[in-house]
């Protein structure tokens, strides 16, 4: 427990240092290469009065878009960076959605939803370009699945391996991402399938934009 707490503290400090200034321009700059986020949101389709959790909510951009699309649902988000959460809170207030979106500071790989939000399960859990930033990313994905209600769905989109894009583009992209401590997970698709197999869950997965991104949906049955 102490080791986990220490790792979480180190990750929080790193993310705060990376995004202390970046958070102010994050949404403006990232919209050009965090591809597939809106596709994920469009496919969430929670129950009319459902509950949706985003792990690694950052600036709140995805939660705001989803709340506007699914007007009857309730939304929750957590992030390890207090700097990013400060921006998220301001964005949510500007959008007039503070009554429908609740935020908390926590580690996506080890969180207590009941303690944070007063509920222990969600109809939808999603992770958008977060697994490539979380060192214990497999644990984060498992924690997301564990937070699902029966019939709930875990949705993921993140960087792929760009296998059908020019090698120079791939090298330049990975070098750029490394500056922000982002590491595309080469075995993400396999890890998703393993998680689904472990829990006998339904799994759909694929790639987008010639391998630029990968997506997956794992449904608890």
UniProtKB/TrEMBL annotation:
Enzyme class, spelled out: transferase
An example molecular function term from Gene Ontology annotations: methyltransferase activity
Keyword Methyltransferase: yes
Keyword terms, alphabetized: Methyltransferase, Transferase
GO biological process, one term: methylation
EC number: 2.1.1.-
Residue ranges constituting the Methyltransferase domain according to the UniProt record: 52-152
Pfam families membership: Methyltransf_25 (PF13649)
Domain of life: Bacteria
InterPro entries linked: Methyltransf_25, SAM-dependent_MTases_sf
Name of the molecule in the record: Rebeccamycin O-methyltransferase
Species, as recorded: Pannonibacter phragmitetus
Gene: rebM
